[in-house]
């Protein structure tokens, strides 16, 4: 039985992605295509799952380089198995837990602290006495540190 290949338009229609986005993901090595005799791109049906995985991961805030690193362990265009998805989701759950903790910290410190880099030395002597954080870098340095247990 011959494999049915999809055009980029069919892939776009079935995934809800713009053709340019599909080309972009291909240029980044996240998906692959074949070329027919007329040099038109053709995709295996399995690419639909890969694109769904990419869209899902992006909604979670996973950067493309990490999506590529994780998804690259599996052959592009083939179905992602249940075992593969379990391994991928375990990795991303840990990343999400880290982000949730950082967001909770930000929420909890939002009223009294602007993150300590420190932009409010007069109001923040407890968290940044004598501007000690200045030597640790710019921006919200305190928010990037782990919470004390």
Strand order of the largest sheet: 1-2
Number of helices: 6
Structure class: mainly alpha
CATH topology category name of the largest domain: Multidrug-efflux Transporter Regulator, Chain: A, Domain 2
Along the chain, the helix and strand elements come as HHEEHHHH
Distance between the termini: 60 Å
Strand content: under 5%
The total domain count is 2
Oligomer state of the chains in this structure:
single chain
Please count the beta strands (DSSP E, at least 2 residues each). Answer: 2
Second CATH tier, the architecture of the largest domain: Orthogonal Bundle
Main β sheet profile: 2 strands, antiparallel
**Arithmetic mean of pLDDT:** 79
- What would CATH call the class of the largest domain? Mainly Alpha
**How big is the Rg?**
22 Å
Q: Helical amount among residues, as a percent range?
A: 40-55%
Task: Give a description of the structure.
The relative contact order is 0.09. A hairpin with a 5-residue loop joins strand 1 (34-35) and strand 2 (41-42). The chain has helices spanning 8-15, 19-27, 47-59, 64-71, 82-109, 141-144; strands spanning 34-35, 41-42. The longest helix has 28 residues, at 82-109. It has two domains: 8-109, Multidrug-efflux Transporter Regulator, Chain: A, Domain 2 (Orthogonal Bundle), CATH 1.10.1660; 112-149, no CATH class. The radius of gyration is 22 Å and the shape is elongated. The protein has 149 residues and is mainly alpha-helical.
């Amino acid at each position: 039985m011959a494999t049915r290949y999809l055009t980029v338009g069919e892939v776009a229609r079935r995934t809800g992605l713009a053709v340019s986005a599909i080309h972009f993901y291909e240029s980044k090595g996240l998906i692959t295509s074949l070329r027919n005799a007329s040099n038109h791109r053709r995709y295996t049906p399995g690419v639909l799952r890969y694109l769904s995985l990419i869209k899902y991961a992006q909604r979670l805030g996973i950067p493309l380089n990490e999506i590529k690193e994780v998804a690259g362990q599996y052959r592009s265009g083939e179905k992602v198995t249940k075992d593969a998805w379990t391994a991928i989701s375990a990795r991303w759950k840990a990343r999400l837990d880290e982000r949730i903790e950082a967001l909770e910290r930000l929420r909890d410190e939002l009223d009294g602290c602007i993150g300590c880099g420190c932009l409010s030395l007069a109001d923040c002597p407890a968290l940044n006495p004598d501007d000690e954080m200045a030597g640790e870098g710019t921006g919200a340095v305190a928010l990037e540190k782990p919470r004390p247990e």
